[in-house]
Amino acid sequence: MRASPISPTVDFEADGEQHGFLKLPYSRNDSAWGAVMIPITVIKRGDGPTVLLTGGNHGDEYEGPIALSKLASTLKAGDINGRLIVVPFMNYPAFRAGTRTSPIDAGNLNRSFPGHPDGTVTQKIADYFQRHLLPLADYVLDIHAGGRTLDFLPFAATHVLADARQQARCEAAMRAFGAPYSMRMLELDSVGLYDSAAEEAGKVFVSTELGGGGSSTAASVAIAERGVYGFLAHAGIIDKESVISEARTTTLLDMPDGACYTTSEHAGLLEMCRDLGDMVSEGDVLARVHDITRSGATPVEYRAKRAGLLAARHFPGLVQTGDTVAVVADIIERNIPVTI
Question: What confidence score (pLDDT) does residue 103 get?
Answer without folding.
Answer: 97
